[in-house]
Structure formats: C-alpha cells, structure tokens
Write a structure and sequence with these properties.
Layout lengths: L13 H27 L5 H20 L1 H5 L1 H21 L7 H11 L2 H23 L7 H85 L6 H25 L3 H4 L3 H11 L4 E7 L7 H22 L3 E8 L3 E8 L18 H10 L3 E6 L5 E8 L6
Helix pairs in contact: 1-2, 2-4, 4-5, 4-6, 5-6, 5-7, 6-7, 7-8, 10-11, 11-12
Length: 398
Amino acid sequence: MADPHSPAPRPLTPVTRVLRLCLHALLFGLLALAAGRAVTDSAPRAGWVVAACAALAAVYVAGVLAPAVRRSPRAAAVWLSGLGAAWAALLVVSPDGLWIAFPLYFLELHLLRLRWGVAAVAVTACAAIGGFVAHAQGGALSPGAFLGPLLGGAVAVATVLGYQALYRESERRRELIEELIATRAELAAAERDAGILAERERLAREIHDTLAQGLSSIQLLLRAAERSLPRDAPALDHIGRAREAAQDNLAEARRFVRALTPPDLEHGSLAAALERLCTAAPGPRVRFCLSGTPRVLPTPYEVALLRIAQSALANVVRHARAGRAEITLTFMDASVTLDVVDDGTGFDPSSAPSGEGGFGLPAMRSRAETLGGLFTVESSPGQGAAVAVTLPLPLEAS
C-alpha cells in the first residue's frame, strides 16, 4: 500500500500492489481457516462463526471498494470501526478470531495517523488477549497468549514504520532524479543556445574581418586606379563596373553580418540593447546613460560591448550586493567607452576569481584586447566597483 499521508497519492507500483494483494489474501485465508475449523470440528456455534466470518469479509470488501476510504481519514476510521465490531463478534464466538488481529494491525497503521494507528494496534492487541482469555474458560494460560498479540503488534508497527521510511527515501530519490533530468535538459539547451550564439558571433567576426575588409580594400584600390587613368581610357568602364560589383558585394556581406548579430542586437542599436539590459536586470536599480553622438559600430564591437556589459552586470547582481548601478556608453571622436559602476561591497581586483561560465574579468579583458581595446577595473573592499572598456573606432566608423 502507498503511504496514505502523502499529499498527493501516487499510482500503486508493482511492489505496493503485491503487498496489498498479500494483505487481502492473508485476511481472507484466515477467515476461511476460522470458518473451516468451526465446520469441520462441529463446534457448537459453527453457524455463528461462519456468519461472523462472512460479515467481516463483507465489511472488508465494502471498504476496499469504497474510494472514500483511501481519500478521507474520517471514512477510513468509520470503516475500521465497522471492521473492529465485526471482528469483536467473531472473537466472541470463536477463539480462532484471534488470528485476524495481525492483518488488522497493518490496516490501522496504514489508514490512521501514526499516534492513532499505534493506539488502535494496542487496543486490538488487548482485545485479542481478552478474547483468548475468555475462551480459555479457566484453563492454563501460557505466556504465548499474551506475548503473541503484543509481539505481533510490535512487528507490525516496526514493519510499517520501516516501510514508510523507505517510501519517503524513495520519493526523495525520485524527486532528485527528476530534478537532475530537468537540470540536464536545461543545461543541454543552454549549451546548445550558447554554441549557436558563439558560432554566429564567430561567423560575423570572420566575415567582417576577411570578406568585408577585403571587398572594401578592393573598392579603394579600384577607386585609386580609376582616378589614375585618363578620362578616355578604355579600362575605365570595366573598372567602374568592377567597383560597383565590389560595392554591391560589400553591402551584401554587411547585411549577412547583421543577420548573424546576437538576438539582443537584432531589434535596434547597441544603446537600445543596453537600455533593455538595464530594465530587465534583477536586484539593484540600474540606470543607462548615453553620452556623445551615437554612430554605427561594426558588429564585433557591438557584440563585445554588449557581452561585457552583460558579464559585468551579472557580477553586480550575484556578488556586489549593490543598491544602484549605472551603465554608461560614451562615443568620442576616435573611441567608444563602456563604463559599469556600482555602489556594492567592492573587491580586490588582484585576487578576484575568474568567475563561472565566462563571466569573469579575464573573459571581459580578452574580449576588449581582441579588438585592440583597453580594459580596466577599479575597486576596493567596501567602495563599490567600476569596470571600463575603451575600444578604438575603426576608420570607417570614425
């Protein structure tokens, strides 16, 4: 049987079905044995014994088939009271009714709360001893008449408590396994998404740094060649068409790079993505400031600045215990600067850990230095922290 005190009873497993069937078989087998002994031994009240056994069996079947007994402790208590009354009647007419006490112990412990179940077992054991003493009719009483019901009750209590402990342990293991499976699925999805984003960023960077730059250089060379030739040179027409083709392919390459932009940059500029990042950040109040005249940056620049801002803000949320933070994006004549400042607990930059999942300071520094930028951290314990990255603007963006 499953534990009746769990908040949401789970479907019976094969083991619990076998246990329940064994309990049914034990009860009906003992009833058949008591009735059969009364008939074969021609007991004086054999008819009453058979009737009492039949009544007890009927009450038991009615409770097993009633869904309310499994759902309601009150209904279970009423059913057990009926079983107890029918068993008492059997105990009055036959000493063999003593045997029914053992399956009753298990029913009481399973259907009642623990303290009430133990009390019901004690009452049942006392009733069994009393019935045996009454049927002894002054004959010699052996210690087994008292120890048998008491030991049976003790064994039943120990068995049920052990089963319930195993059941709770198995439920905890099941929950842990389900949580592990869900975590593994989430981790696999996160790794897959991270891999997709990393590949998109890599392709965008490679296309920008190779194809786009190469086409831009070809266009500049063709323009220089066009200016160096006389106006009536026959090659001017071919050079013009070649320059237009290079221009068209350069625009196509840039469109392809924009299509590979991370989702945070797909729906607007870098400034808009940073503002959305501040709005969605949990924990401290985060403000975004834009300084200077915004301009279109190459995709690798926007990706690097956005990722550094996300990493720095993630560190603020997780570690700084800050009340306020500010992200500032500053456009200057020859560079663009990103500052992330908080009023948190601060730290010693020389002993800061590298972080988890690429959110550490070394990962931010690597992103900045890859693009020829400068990455600095200013912080001390109790004084907040400031992270700044400055990237030189390429000629085409300046």
